[in-house]
Task: structure prediction
Amino acid sequence: MRIYGDSISGNCLKVKWTCDYLGRPYEWIETQVMQAQSRTPEYLATFPAGQVPGVVLDDGRPLAQSNAIILHLAEGSDLIPADAYERARMLEWMFWEQYSHEPYVAVARFQVRFLGKAVAELEPKVIERGLSALKRLDEALEGRKYLVGDRLSLADVALVAYTREAEDGGFRLADYPNVQAWIGGVEHALKIPT
Amino acid sequence: MRIYGDSISGNCLKVKWTCDYLGRPYEWIETQVMQAQSRTPEYLATFPAGQVPGVVLDDGRPLAQSNAIILHLAEGSDLIPADAYERARMLEWMFWEQYSHEPYVAVARFQVRFLGKAVAELEPKVIERGLSALKRLDEALEGRKYLVGDRLSLADVALVAYTREAEDGGFRLADYPNVQAWIGGVEHALKIPT
Result:
């Protein structure tokens, strides 16, 4: 399997971590968004949305969208709860991540760290909704080690990716102690180098 | 099952259409976003993200996020492809819908139709990315009746919801003939009143 990914992208790292956790071999093809390497005619021919990550499976078929990729790769593994309701809650978190978390927490980090914006220059909506996402995560993690049930799932993989980088966008993780403890636990479970 | 939904929201209608298609009974509890009915302390106690739709399943457990809800309700039905790769492609479209389509196509429609903005007042990014999403859909639907494989799936349910309303946001569906034909086919398959 080939993973077309940008090492600075949490969405891409989700795929790498899932493969590493599952012991699944892959070739990583560095594809830099800031160099428009995901917008070349060649890349677009395989991945029409022009986004990373994209994977080309062992049989040559392409798949895009980080959360769809990790759901496919992890099918039948312990990263997906066996219980139907827990599986649905995992999906709830994964869709919430892409709609209510990534566009704020990841975008703030990208603009500050990679585009050189000051935190004060960020769109107020980005800061406000990022804070709201972190607060919601902190409340959900009260008394819990993982987001769904009592073990690691793809909900944790998806949400830890940009949450652990939130300070780069000006958010203070010390304000969210449950989130901080959870990040440490998920990094440990996924063996993410810190 | 109780569905807390706003009848003007495509995200909520996805859940209704899926239930209707599957012949699954439900009580619809009209929950108007513009009246902040999804932000009351009572609603937030069940659905902490404060979004519609939310469902309370027969056993009393809550579930949020339109696409997670329809994936849960349709488990084991013909709305989810049996083939693993087709299932993954369906999920790819569903995550793409929430990240690259809904925030532009649905937001343009909401601001024009329900907030009374002129199309010319929309954020340029909203228009540009909405156009780009419709173009991508049109290309993907070339020679195809449905988005995944050769039959209706949740990818069609998720994407038709706001695509069929795109003209309300100033987009011209006549520019996307494959999309127009597909909308008609999906409306027919789902028996959506037009």
In short: The two ends of chain A are 26 Å apart (CA to CA).
